[in-house]
Specification:
Layout (H helix, E strand, L loop, with lengths): L1 E5 L2 E3 L6 H7 L5 E4 L8 H12 L11 E5 L5 E6 L9 H4 L3 E5 L6 E5 L5 H12 L7 E6 L3 H9 L4 E6 L5 H9 L3 E4 L7
Parallel strand pairs: 8-9, 9-10
Antiparallel strand pairs: 1-2, 1-3, 4-5, 4-8, 6-7
Helix pairs in contact: 5-6
Bound molecules: zinc ion (2 copies).
């Protein structure tokens, strides 16, 4: 339910969603969105869906899931971590590990490269179905890696909501800031 106020006086008789309200509200009006009793807000709802979707992921090193909505909260696309169609899964055939070294610091990290990341799968599904992602909102359990972040910028996403932070998330956040993408990590303390 959306309540509209001018000062402390409630404006009644207006119907429609957020966009409609924004268009017709008098200048200076304050909009308060009440969570409806007994119903999760959209963010909670989408994060719950992500937990269910992630059960289909096939790489135990990061069972992430992602979904993309428009600003009316319609789901445009979704994806989870998995191999390309018809290819072996990590969970049955083992990971394919790539070790990379930072030439500046000498630090080495190992990444499984068998799978397509959840965000990449969601973007690929949108491309397959001919769905534009311009001005969309992306929800993900795990904050995007830098590779996914670049794709997210490039396909026109304007907001990214992650449940958990990624331990190497600094590059992603810096890129999002520079690209004017609004980002939020819901549970910043827990890290992967
Ligand atoms: Zn793997
Ligand atoms: Zn990624």
């Amino acid at each position: 339910m959306v309540k509209m106020f001018v000062g402390d006086k409630e404006v009644k008789g207006m119907k429609g969603g957020w966009t409609l309200v924004q268009e017709f509200l008098p200048v200076g009006a304050i909009v308060i969105k009440d969570p409806e009793p007994g119903r999760p807000c959209w963010e909670e709802y989408f994060v719950d869906l992500l937990h269910t979707m992630s059960k289909r992921a096939t790489c135990s090193r990061g069972s992430n899931a992602c979904l993309i909505t428009n600003q009316d909260n319609d789901i445009l696309s979704f994806g989870y971590v998995g191999s390309p169609h018809g290819q072996p899964h990590c969970d049955t055939d083992g990971h394919v590990i790539l070790r990379i070294r930072n030439l500046d610091t000498g630090e080495e990290r190992e990444h499984c490269i068998r799978t397509i990341h959840a965000e990449q799968n969601a973007i690929a599904l949108a491309a397959k179905r001919g769905v534009a992602l311009k001005d969309s909102i992306l929800y993900t359990l795990l904050e995007p890696c830098y590779y996914c972040a670049k794709l997210i910028v490039q396909c026109g996403v304007i907001k990214v909501i992650s449940k958990f932070p990624y331990k190497e998330g600094n590059l992603t956040r810096e890129l999002f800031d520079k690209s004017s993408i609004v980002w939020k990590v819901i549970e910043m303390k827990k890290s992967y």
